[in-house]
Amino acid sequence: MLRSCSTRLLYFLMIAIASLSWAGDQIPKAAWKRPLGLPLQNAGTKKPSLPADHIDDGYWQGAPVGGFGAGTFSRTYRGDFARWHMKGGVHKYQAVYANQFAMYQKSEGASAGVAQVLASVHPKGNGLSSWKWDYPVGAGDYFSLYPKSWFDYKWDKFPAHVVLEQFSPILPDNYRETSLPIAVYRWHAENPTNQAVTVSVMLSWTNMIGWFRNFNRDLSGHLDAGTFNHFVAKDGVKALILDRKRSIPVENEWDGQFAIATADTPDVEVSYHSTFNPGSPSQEVWSPFANDGRLDNSDLQWISSDEQLAGAIAVRFTLKPGEKKVVPMVIAWDLPIVQFGTGRKWYRHYTDFYGTSGTNAFQIAADGLRAATQWSDAVDAWQAQYINDENKPLWYRGALFNELYTLADTGSFWGRPVGSDPKTKHTFAFMECFDYPYFATLDVRFYGSMPLIKFWPDLDKQELRQFADTVPISMPEKYAWIWKTQETHSRALRERKTKGAVPHDLGVPQEDPFVLPNQFSWQDTNGWKDLNSKFVLMVYRDYAFTGKQDVAFLRYNWPAVQEAIEYLKKYDRNDDGIPENDGYPDQTYDEWVVRGESAYCGGLWLGALRAAEEIARALGESAGVAKYHELFAKAQGSYIKKLWNGNYFSYDTMSEYRDNIQADQLAGQWYATSIGLGDLVPQEMQKKALRHIFDYNVMKFAKGDMGAVNGIGADGTIITTNEQVQEVWTGTTFSLAALMLEHGMKDEAYRTAWGVYHVSYETKGYWFRTPEAWDQTGNYRASMYMRPAAIWAMEMTAPPK
Asked: Which of 97, 419, 462, 740 could disulfide-link to 745, CB 3.0 to 4.6 Å?
């Protein structure tokens, strides 16, 4: 609902501003840190074997802003805004130089002030050429503890110490603020000198209405015609609205508004320049700002004929010696519609609170200014119990939160169809990654959704209901089966979706997601042996992790659970109780052939049978309890007999990889232990296998510095005949570490997980784009991946026995 009472808004704004406290010197120790603008030597790159269109934007990255399903963007640690995930499911990377912060400072009595763009980079050509670019490299530090990040400016030409705190209100068990399209920037300024210091911060922004309209990986093809900017001052807020001339309500995904805004308070002077062309030198903006930190208050408005337009707003204040002040600014956007490839349109979740007109960016900004301090404090309170736990490594405490970025930033979608009843239950999903743009990829979300069920359980349950709805569906249309076509050198086809098969995904943005599931064409996932088991395990997981109270959730999913098990059971062709793998990569390791009974899929099957037994018990389904208990007992005996070799569970029974040591062999046991299903195999076997995995897959691969390699020979030989066998998978490494914790192997667990942190944050530069995998060189595959969020599994473990 829109807040329309201006007096109430003004009152709360004044209270919020009055209560602002200095927090710039309280950046948590757990935050990841890097010098501003410092290049990285020997940075990682994507693997040379990957297709040219796979993403490698390099290490100039930063924590994103924007709520779940609202669209996100990020400012790199060198100061440029470069990554744009504003169109649903689409990645764009391109610096927009007019989107920028600049600072002016002048000490009392000094002959002149200093004005500087806060970016260690500069544009090419004539555009913005009058501005002073190239902030000194290393003159301060960047910190991140998502959803917050900080830019700590320490340049000897700036007499005042200024820290920028940046965040969006991503808050646990919150289904309103977490969805909002807003970025909050709180400027913490302190004067450590003996003279008064005048400080001014300018925020400039391009009118990007019309820019997010295609699937290109850059910002080419954008539309500027019809855009215009204007200044608004009301309710204690001053803002520039970046808009478009329209005669009808917003009805396209690229249409709406941006707003850049600040609070109008007595001790802060606000100035503005509403419209300029960033393709020009833009001296009319820079000259007055560089002179005394003020803009000229020009509200000259014109409508673009197709030239780019931008606007700027500045906040100016004076600090007495020793004085501290916090000044908020916000960027808000109202782009209410998501439209996917075949044309279906959806309203974003935040429109439940701000309407669907696409003309409420000012109201979103005003509400954000009012709540900025409250939101900041709420984020701090949420994080405190984790980042202050000194029983755990400092690097780990920071990585926990920095790996949460994927929930908002990896193409997350949250909304309802245009034209639907506003009370309609909203669809939610986030993507596997942008190279593999599948919504809610089930075999991967099995790992990567751990923080979702922990902090936003309603969203995770909704995603699983969406999967349950697909299980009985048959979609017999034929599509290419790419892997088999390549292997056999002849055209192979797959059925889109077989009744009883849990789909690999809920669709892709290029098509009609949530209506047309299972678009993955690399393999025929109708025959995969992990998906159905994982679905059943996740249903029980969500019930168990939310207090075992939501029986209605179990009841909703019960028909799909039963059908999923019956479907998978048909692959038990030798009647030993375990479905056999079929000699192709029919599980999440989709290039690693598996044949016969396997440790990975067999263990998941054992876990699914136990989960189904407990679901039946919770629902009072006595026949189901007996049935699944009997199936489990039979399968357990066969599993141990056929796969336990005295040291670990063999990869499988029939393929050339059968003797390999698979790092993820105990995935089913990891889930079973964490959600209270007990031992799928005896404790001593679990512990012995974990020790073997640590000694071989972790410590014999890159000396334990890169995580757990997926597979390794029984003698410790690195296997080079298959791409995925010789990869480290970041998310499965974290789940392995979680199971180690459950067995009291604390040192081994953190050493295993540290390898992922070490590569991502210390050596190869994969911050805020943590990939699915890397090889022994550190080169990666599939950046910005879903699975690494499994680090939260290490916080969701059962106590060691």
From this structure: 740
